[in-house]
Specification:
Layout: H1 2-14, H2 32-39, H3 81-97, H4 101-105, H5 125-144
């Protein structure tokens, strides 16, 4: 049944892209049962944990937790899907860096639109200083404890 459904989808696409099937090297069709089996997703849900409308957007989880230094982001926090994950990642980065969205999402010179967490060399100097001040503040707090 999955094989038949997959090829019906390809044939449907070929109406818009003639010859498409000749270029397919590999395909795989996932269904809600696939998600339930491999991801243990609630009833095959594709977008994280099951949510009610009262748990999405401003009513979802915030990136800050009651544990210092632990932040949340992902499909099961603010909202579902790629847009929800992206938004939650930006919110978590803002919380970690204590900055605005524009600090993270602004093109800096010829650099990328998104700042790379692994390589801070392309970060603007004011943001590097802000991050260093945050680390110093955390170190001072740890010494007090």
């Amino acid at each position: 049944m999955k094989e038949d459904l997959a090829w019906r989808m390809v044939r449907g696409l070929e109406k818009r892209i003639p010859g498409l099937s000749r270029h397919i090297v590999y395909y795989s069709l996932g269904t809600p049962l696939t998600n339930e089996h491999y991801l243990n997703a609630t009833r095959g849900n594709l977008y994280g944990t099951e949510k009610s409308p009262a748990q999405i957007g401003p009513f979802g989880f915030t990136p800050r937790t009651e544990f210092d230094g632990l932040f949340l982001c992902g499909a099961s926090t603010m909202s579902h899907g790629v847009a929800g994950v992206t938004a939650s990642g930006i919110e978590a980065a803002k919380a970690v860096l204590n900055c605005r969205s524009s600090d993270i999402l602004t093109q800096h010179g010829n650099g990328p639109l998104f700042l790379q967490a692994e390589d801070t060399s392309a970060w603007p100097e004011y943001l590097k200083r802000k991050m260093e001040r945050g680390e110093v503040a955390r170190e001072e707090e740890e010494r007090e404890v």
